[in-house]
Write a structure and sequence with these properties.
Length: 181
């Protein structure tokens, strides 16, 4: 493998570790960047859920709660994208509200699954209740929620950086196995 390829792998790993540390050290900046990404993902998810609801409302009862949840997701996605700074401040509260509402929706939907004989309906019920409780906790303590979110993002990015550096160290094994330099 070319030496320049190995160098870029090391540089990428180091930069990811630095970025991860920055995310942990600067949770506000991390939330602004996250606001944009979450806006895109939430908008797409809400549109997908709305399409799913329209296509399945004939045979899945309680489609009203799914439709309301989809509309809420679309609204949240647009909100995130149009006002990033206010979103960075509001993101823990809004995110917690979404988690709480989605948990309630999943708990309600679990009974539809029970009616059609799905054996694990109770797991959906429990997960929905847990989600609703976690969402409520996030609403009560938004500063903690924002810090936790930024820290988790930072730790994930650091993990990728360390994996890149480990990949650099492991490349020698590939070169030996494939007899290339």
């Amino acid at each position: 493998m070319k030496k320049s390829t190995k160098i870029w792998l090391v540089i990428s790993g180091i930069l990811l570790i630095i970025l991860g540390v920055f995310c942990i050290a600067k949770p506000g900046n991390t939330l602004v960047a996250s606001a944009w990404l979450l806006g895109c993902f939430t908008l797409i998810s809400g549109i997908s859920k709305l399409i799913f609801t329209f296509k399945t409302q004939r045979f899945m009862p309680n489609s009203g709660s799914r439709m309301l949840s989809a509309i809420l997701q679309i609204f949240i996605g647009c909100f995130f994208l149009f006002d990033l700074l206010d979103t960075a401040v509001a993101i823990p509260v809004v995110f917690s509200l979404w988690i709480m509402f989605e948990g309630i929706t999943i708990a309600i939907q679990s009974f539809d699954y029970k009616k059609v004989g799905f054996g694990q309906w109770w797991a959906m019920l429990i997960l929905g209740i847990v989600g609703a409780i976690l969402g409520m906790y996030g609403m009560i303590n938004p500063v903690f929620s924002g810090t936790v979110l930024s820290t988790l993002i930072g730790l994930g990015i650091i993990a990728f950086g360390v994996a890149y550096l480990m990949g650099f160290v492991g490349i020698k094994k590939f070169e030996i196995a494939l007899n290339i330099k």
